[in-house]
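go over whats below:
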Amino acid sequence: MLLSGATATQLREGNRLVDVVVRAPAAERLGLSALGGLTVAAPSGAAPLAQLARLEPVMEEPIL
C-alpha cells in the first residue's frame, strides 16, 4: 500500500466517481535506500522490512 497505493474511498465529482488513493510521500517511494525502512505488519507486531529480508538490488530481464 505504501508504494502503489490503495483506494481509501471515492469522491463524487459531478456525475462520476473519483477514487481517493492513499500512499507514502514521493520521497519515501522513489528511492531504493528508503525501502528498508518500510514497516511490515504481522500478527505478532510490526517491523522494518530491513529486519525481515536482505535487500539487494540486481539487474534482470524485463517482463514483456
User: Anything to note?
Assistant: Residues 40 and 52 are 9 Å apart (CA to CA).
